[in-house]
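ok trying again, last paste got cut off:
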Amino acid sequence: VAAGKPVTVHYDLTGVRAVAKPELVVSTVGHPNPATGPIFTAAYTVALTGTTGSITIPASAFDDGGGLYGIGIVQDSTGTPPFGRPVYGEFATIRVNGGTAAQRPEAPTFTAGHEAEVSRSAPGFALDYDTRNVPGATGAAVEFSAPSPTLYNSLNTFSNANGTARDHDGVDSGSVAYQQLGTASGTAQLDAVKLGLTGSLAYNVRVFATDHSGHIIGQASPTSQLIFDDGVTPNDGTVASFGAASTGPSVVAVRDPSGAESVREYQPKTGTYGTTLATDTSGSGGYDVLGVDATAQRALLLHWSTGGSFSLATYNTATGQLVADVPGASGEQATGGRVDTTRHRGAVLLRRTSDKADLVLPVDLTTGAVGTAIPADPAGTPAGEYSLIDIDQSTGAVLLSHVGGGLICFIGGASNVASIDLDAGTATAAKSADGCSDAIADDSGTGTLYQMSYRSFSVNIAGTTNLIPVSGNPLTAGIGIAVRQQPALTLAVDSVHHLALVAFQTPPSTPQFGNVLGAISDNNATSQLAVVDLTTGKTVSTVAGFVFGGGVFGGEYNPSTERAIQLDPTTRTGWTYAPGGDEVQQFSY
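nice, full thing came through this time. structure:
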């Protein structure tokens, strides 16, 4: 059928069993049949009121331009989520003709051919294109696809492969950049950063022929691939942990394929690695970057071994020199820690093996000296209660929380949060807090600790991720902010703009019994960060283009306490683990 034309189809349900509220549906482009692709979405639906009849499908149902669409029957539409699914019958495939192969330009190329790899330090590239073989072409346009890899490890993310319009069907993640090139052929000098592309990802690149008004003529070209690196680790290593800062050097622990681990200075603006601060060649130990203090020019590292011993190493990030390396006490294990960039000190959460008691160990970042461990379990609190740590940068209080979450959780409890005063050496239990906490982050601008809580009564029905504010003196839980009906992974808080970034493995989903993640309709799905305004409680935006999970999200030592998402509120820039784990992925929010 010609593009822009309606289509009339005939249907007959005579003799078909188990028909209930039947519907005629039209798929999105490129996904014409639920039997050949499990991620199927009915983009257009019309109820069928008779056993037989004819339906005229408007041209607007084929809104993604030329390509393959499926037209089919939902025999039973009463099986609604989360307890049922629609029952589909047979599908017919139709091609919306937006042009023939003769109206398709050749794929664009880069200097090295059909693939180019650029970096944050050198994001520019030349794109050669030629659309003159398309009749009527006086110009061209270039399009960059949704990012890859996706959660399904797909690298091909154009849904309308032979499309006659920009890829945006309203269901699958569409293209992220589209730019007119002017002339029908030539070499375009482009920049990945200026195009707004997110690093540590790959993009399909194609061109369209356009007329004198910039309107697309014919089909999209075949694709080439652009890879945009933030900063690939040296020696094919993986990122074990990191501490990011926009001013002064950042620090990244890199695990080499041989098993050795090194800590290197890192410049996020350019994606380049510098001086090696420390190396562990044992293969049975490594480093957890507890934090970086750009003002004091210090990095605090937890040097751990699989046997349980550890030391706390402080480095001068200006010179790359070791300031101090203090062994941990016998009979104590380190859970994790944080750095107070206001008072230039660190705090490390310990657990004593003899009685499971929690301790907090202060560290002077100027000298690297450790202080006296402070008992962290307030009176009446069970030993070993705390597994999460953060610092209120406005007061210097160390905040601890219990990990009580899981696929089934609906409890609370005052002992689940404690505040540690490093100067006074005291621990105070909260008056009330949430018992289903999986992660915490402090909004130092308001003195409020946020517990990320997932509440659910069944492993078969998705619960809701909430942010529970805990504030005041004594700390008291307030009214939670409902974020999404899905379990979340972790969070970070921007204390300048009072925003929480909550990590989810998938986009928002349709509830589905037996699957807490729900049913995903996006064929180009990637993990997401939900950006929540802590003042209004509203999710104001989402950031996509991540692959959270699969063993590359959260670090290698203790994912519960490591900061998998780090933020610079001044520039609204963030960092996390890249897909594949070989880069520190930078993003904007």
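cool. Residues 380 and 415 are 8 Å apart (CA to CA). DSSP finds no helices and 44 strands in the chain.
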